[in-house]
Every structure is written in structure tokens, then in C-alpha cells.
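Pipeline run #58 for the internal structure catalog. This entry was flagged by the ingest filter as a single-chain record with no existing model, so it goes straight to prediction. Upstream metadata was stripped on purpose; only the residue string is passed forward. Reviewer on rotation: M.T. Logging verbosity set to normal.
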Amino acid sequence: MPEFAYIARDLAGQKVSGTLSAQSEREVIAILSGKSLFPVQVSADKVLAPGAHLRVRGQAMATVYSQMAALLRSGVPLLRSIAVLRDQSSNKNLKTILDEVYRRVEEGATLADAMVRFPRAFSEMAVNMVRAGGEGGFLEDALERVASFTELQEDLKGRTLSAMVYPLVLGTVGTVVVSTLIIFFVPKFAVMFERLRERGELPWATDMLIWVSESLQKWGIFIVAAMVIAAVWARFRFATPEGRRLADLIKIKVPVAGQIFLNFAVARFCRVLGTLLHNGVPILKALEISRDASGNRVLSEAIAKASENISGGHSLAGPLASSGHFPKMVVEMIAVAEESNTLDKVLVDLSDDLEKRTSRQLDLAVRLLEPIMLIILAVVVLIVVIALLVPVMKMSSAMG
């Protein structure tokens, strides 16, 4: 949600300034009027909070959410809870962030509004869940849910990265070895094979290998430069809203991996929506909050369209199915749950099932990646060796 800076005057004529999170300037003016403040100036707040650029590891944030939930459940006031977590933290970045969160909450901002200023520490899902918990009176439950979500994501990320280390090392070493063979080793044979080429007896594989070697020697620097430029361009391109949407679309459409990304995104959406509905949040408000929890803009757009249909009296399953992005099984279960009025329970169960099934798929895909990369590397090296050995054997036979 955008941040707006405002200057207003109270009933005594005193100047009051600060920032508010709202959808528009009109909403800011309405909020200020509700607080008996008369707006003088309202503008988009582009000044980052101190520490807004700081990053904190997900596991550390999961601990913060869990401990804050425990403190609040024990009856400790919110401000005191933030102060306790800030004072006991040994992480310099986290201490800076919590200090600023404490200051903003002390000034009257909600916890979610204070968190939204630190996008590299508090995820969009965490902010939305905390906002819903604060508005619905279940902040402790919301924080516990965010803690469990964050721990699950960090565990999944850690298992994936640890499983990917060997394939990445194998791929890097293989690329270096093959490139060294082609660039430095193959040219030494090119002069020897010149006579076979003149007689038209040079195998096409060897001729192609020599051409690749000469091209890399001549244009290698330019090829690397072009790849670097393309990577930089892609990074800036995907940083724009249109680029991020395109990246999210590619992410869920790419073969094999796309289904894994899609299932995890749908599982996050179902879990957050189910939790909000279980805690009594109206469905339109719950959809507004949970649509960003998927972490995918394409799915968020589909969920936003579903919200429009629901406000018109239609079901949730219909527009989700028509978007073409949600698995058929998910849509069918949502449709049945709507008919039986058990949507909150079914969504959470569906999320559990999707996460377990997709985790198994991910583990299997990572395990298969190692032998596939070994086979690819072995085939490439074999092609290079055969392309060099066949003409050598021909020359040996001719000499014999």
C-alpha cells in the first residue's frame, strides 16, 4: 500500500505531520478527518525509513514473529514487545529495523504500517497477514501463522539450495573443462587435419568442432560481453511492473519447474485465505489481503477479478477456473467447499496437501538433475573426443 506524507492541523490549530498508508490521497484525507485533523498538505512519501534498505534473513524474521506472538499472548503490550525484541537482538540490521518500527508505532502507526516501510525484511505476505490480524483482533494468531509460513519457506529454500550445490558445481566445472578443450586443445589439431579437409575426408563433426573453436577464439570476448549486457538488460527489464509480471508468467509456464512454482504459489494463497476466513474476516477483505500472498502477479490479477465477481454475487471457483492458471483439482475442491460452507477448512487442508505433494516433486526433480547433468557432460566430452579421434585414426591408416 502506498505511503503518503501529510501536514494537518488539530482542533487547537496546532500543526501535526506524519505518514499514512492508504490507497489514495482521498483516503488519507478521510482518515485524517476521522481523527479530527484538518489536512493542509498530502503528498506521496518517497523518503525511505532509516534501515529500509537493510536485509534480514528469513529464519531470523521467523523467530521475531514467533517471539512477538508469544509476548502478546502473554499479555505484554505491543510497544513493550517490540522493545524487548529490539533490545535482545544481536543482529545489527534487525535492531535498527525494530528501533524504527518501535518509533513509528509509538507515534500512532499500526504495526503493519510500520512494517511496510522495510520491504527487504518484512515480506508482503507478512505485512498483509499482520494488517488483517490487527484489524480482525487476532494479531497473535496472525504472527504465529507468518512465523510458520516463513519457517516453511526457509526450510524449503535451504533444502533446495543444498541439493543444488552439487549440480551447480558439476555444471560449472564441466563448462570450464569443455571450453578449455575447445578453445586451447582443438586448435592444435586443426593444422594436422588440413590435408584431410583438402581431400574432402574430414568428418563433418570434426569440421564443426574446428569452426566452433575458431569462432570462440575470434568472437569469444564479444559473446561474453553480449551475455553480460543481456543479463544486465534483463535485470532492469524484470524490475519494472510489466517485467515482473512477465517473469511471473514465465515462472509458472516453464515446463516441469512451472508446475512446482504454480503449486507453491497457490498453496500460499489458499493457506492465507483459509486462515483469514477462519478468523472471521469477510471474504472480500480476505481476498484483497491474500491475493498478494501468492507472490505471483499473474495469480494476483486472477484473484482480483474473482473478487469483482464475488461482489456481484458469483462464486469464487468460477472466475478462478476461467483464468486458466489455477489447477483443476484446486478449483473443484473450492467449488465443493463453497457449496458445503466449509471453505476455510478446505483451503487450509488443500494448502497442506499441495505443499507436501510439491515438496516431493521438487526433491525428485533435484535428484534427477544430477544424473541428467552427468549424462549431458559425458555426451559433450564424448562428442569432442570422437570428433578428434576419428580423423587421427584415418591419418594413421593412411600412413600405414
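catalog note: The mean pLDDT is 81.
catalog note: Residues 3-44 form one domain.
status: ready for reviewer M.T.
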